[in-house]
Amino acid sequence: MWVVKYIVSAVVNNGHRGLFHRSWGSLPELEHRYLHCTCCWKSRISTSDFDLWTSALSSKVCEDEGTSLDSRYTAEQRVAILQRLNTATENELAEVKLLRGRKSVNIVEYRTRNGPFKNLESVINVPLFKHKTAMVVFNSILYPSEKKERRKSKIQLVKFIKPEVDRKLLEEASCIVSIVCGTDNIAWAHVDRGFNVLDWQQENCHNFMKGTYMASAYLDDISAVVSRMPKADLFVVEKSGISLQNTTLYPVMVHLRTVEAMLFALLGQRSEPEAPPKVLNMVRSAVGRHFGLMVGEARTSGIQMVRQMMTDSVTQKTPRVSFPHSLVVRYRHAFHLGARKSGEELCDALLQAVAFYEKLGE
């Protein structure tokens, strides 16, 4: 599809051009410019000669039309791309640009039902894949180092950590406790630098959001939870992204900020005034983007991802996260999408810890 772009040039008045100043009864002059391709908006044809439009259109075709994906790559490149798509696990596919989230799941499901991909063009049959998406994925498989360098320049862990601390302090932390607060509970995950889950628990807090706000009741519940938390080099508390403009969520926002402030006070006691902080905030949306869980500005559930991590811990030699057998047995049936007691906070606490270390290593 080709369209013509025009520029309207108003008739001059007293030697000056203007959109609204022209002599009475005169018409704007239309100045032909170019024909633009609506597929790519880059290809264009000069329209100086109106009679040659038809012949020009027949001879000029958008570069992307009629070109198969297989013809864009050499035989060696096609073999390398198909090898990755046909053998990689969901986690390994998620390392490729644009394959995080549902796309990697769709690839595995498609090849399970239909067998391995025989050519690059067949990838278009996978749900959520289009021509341009496939090309970005293929190029990312062929040139992974370039992708990694771009991500390094764009993603910095310190941007999502508050208060601001020296990066060396983060790198020296051999283990952290990642904490996420819900409306009636507090969950935490104790994870070391080797991605080993040392402890993973959730405590119900019966005084949260019950009737009239009572600071002393909140303090009792939170103090009891903190007393059972393990020691760690750093405590990372989730920073929720509830907007002040949404007045219906104002009680929830006050609740979360209250719990957050008490956690900072109880966990962040310093031996010296100038000592670096031990309690930090990590932005919730940053964790969501790291795992591809964001839809617009909203974050979706991470339950399915945590389930996969637990399965990989049992079935793979080098899993992304290692769980002790006792925790796998304890939580293997604990997470249910849509259920009231779904374990969302437990999952979020674990994902926050994993994102902390993975971002630190990028």
From TrEMBL:
As for subcellular location, the record says: Mitochondrion matrix, Mitochondrion nucleoid
Q: Which SUPFAM superfamilies does the record match to this protein?
A: RuvA domain 2-like
Membrane-spanning residues where?
none
One annotated GO molecular function is: DNA polymerase processivity factor activity
Q: What is its main location?
A: mitochondrion
Q: Which Gene3D superfamilies match?
A: AF1531-like domain, Ribonuclease H-like superfamily/Ribonuclease H
A GO CC term?
mitochondrial nucleoid
Record keyword Transferase present:
no
Its Gene Ontology biological processes? transcription elongation by mitochondrial RNA polymerase
Q: Which domain of life is it from?
A: Eukaryota
Concerning Pfam families, the annotation shows: HHH_3
Could you tell me the keywords of this UniProt record? Mitochondrion, Mitochondrion nucleoid, Transcription, Transcription regulation, Transit peptide
Annotated function? Transcription elongation factor which increases mitochondrial RNA polymerase processivity. Regulates transcription of the mitochondrial genome, including genes important for the oxidative phosphorylation machinery.
Q: Which family does it belong to?
A: Belongs to the TEFM family.
This chain's protein is named Transcription elongation factor, mitochondrial
Q: Which organism is it from?
A: Synaphobranchus kaupii (Kaup's arrowtooth eel)
